[in-house]
Please model this.
Amino acid sequence: MTGNSAFTNPGDREYPIEERDLAEEQNEHLTSALRTVRDNPNAPSELKDLARKMLSGRLELKDVLDDPSGYRALTDGIAGMRESWRSMAPEDRQAVRARVEEKAVEAEADGVGAGYRPR
Model:
């Protein structure tokens, strides 16, 4: 292939994922989140690979936990987040909760995720 810009590397597409069970806006948010993970130099390589698989269409959201590498990437990533959360001072945790609540209120005002409320 010669310099045809219509082709991209797997996981580099610029259009939203189209999961059947998600609304268009949810697919756009999922795509954005996966791109963020894929492009984050601090993200574990397994998580980046998972994001690339999903962005390339090789793996659907419903199949992530059935894929051994997907399961490992998510559970290892969650374990790291859990440790980070546990090591935070209570005031810092409360600040994070407040930011999440603020973002949820803003999103609801914009009509996004109207029923979602963080715990």
Residues 24-109 form one domain. The radius of gyration is 17 Å.
